[in-house]
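Cross-posted from the bioinformatics board.
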Amino acid sequence: AQSVTQLDSHVSVSEGTPVLLRCNYSSSYSPSLFWYVQHPNKGLQLLLKYTSAATLVKGINGFEAEFKKSETSFHLTKPSAHMSDAAEYFCVVSDGSTGFQKLVFGTGTRLLVSP
Amino acid sequence: EPEVTQTPSHQVTQMGQEVILRCVPISNHLYFYWYRQILGQKVEFLVSFYNNEISEKSEIFDDQFSVERPDGSNFTLKIRSTKLEDSAMYFCASSGDRGRYQPQHFGDGTRLSIL
């Protein structure tokens, strides 16, 4: 079965400093990985997806993630945090073992951005 | 940009009552999903639906739950006799393809509160 582990439940940064949200995956085959963001009282918005075409994936709002097979990691980064980045971030793996895809979510990392 | 819409945003129901959560997926999408997130817990897969039938369901999706696509646009989740533990945020999602790299697009969710 596919799974993801988000290593930090909370990450606090100052505005303008780099962001690093960590995710490790477990998969019996080449995984399909996603990062989603959830702002307060909003739905889940896709930030980026890994499709095996490139190990460095660029997403929306300046976020990017690097797929590292040797480390089974897919960490999310952003060079400079903005106040509007404060939200919950989910690392997600797609499990298609039945032929239909279901998403398996990590526990989430709450990003706090201070002025 | 097309989006998934869910109604109502908040539903309060007495235990034992039936509840129907409604979703309008993105119009050209063919695959539909329900997930739920109990407060403080992970987002969990409930069910996937394609071609007017359930393609996969989780252990959570017992006989009290059902899904339906009553017309060409709506996708509903019904809970027949609600329990306190059904209190959660319920997310609908849709995708255009079942390919493993195809992202799922989520609605803003319905917060279900069982009294």
